[in-house]
Amino acid sequence: MKSLGIFLISTLFFLGCATTQKIEAPVVQTVKSDLFPGKITRAEYYEQMAISYSQDNQHEKAVDHYRLSILHDPKRVSSHLNLSDEYRNINLNHLASYEIYEALKLDPKNRLALHKLGDLYLASKIYSKARQVYSQL
Predict the structure, then answer these.
(1) CA-CA distance, 104 to 98, in Å (whole number)?
(2) Residue 100 and residue 103: Cα distance in Å, rounded?
(3) Which residue has the higher pLDDT, 30 or 107?
(4) In this predicted model, what pLDDT tens digit does every residue of 66-83 receive, in sequence order?
(5) With a threshold of 0.90, does the pTM exceed it?
(6) Spatial separation of the C-alpha atoms in residues 90 and 57, rounded to whole Å
(7) Spatial distance between the Cα atoms of 135 and 42, rounded to a whole number of angstroms
(8) Burial level of 133, CB count in 10 A (0-12/13-18/19+)?
(9) How far apart (Å, rounded) are the C-alpha atoms in residues 5 and 48?
């Protein structure tokens, strides 16, 4: 009796599968966004992801993605400067100053980096160094 029931169920199942209509799924088009055009580098991708995390106040994730961006392109000044901002957001000023110095090694005349370094010295109450940095602006 059991085997007859299993046979009937399996037969009805296979007949049902064989007689169902085939439905064509629409073809999905791939759309390129303005944020990620066809020729984006990995460093740019990770930096954009880090900016998104930073805007969502997920600073640890932002730090990780900025570090990945720097790993893929160590000469990317914007990643160094943005990473320094994230370090300041989580009160790691010594790491922030390191990243600012790295950015200044790459571009010694970068006004934004000099301004951020001066701000960091002011926040640390090192006024003589802040004055020296601001005088270079």
Answers:
(1) 10
(2) 5
(3) 107
(4) 999 999 889 999 999 999
(5) no
(6) 10
(7) 36
(8) buried
(9) 60
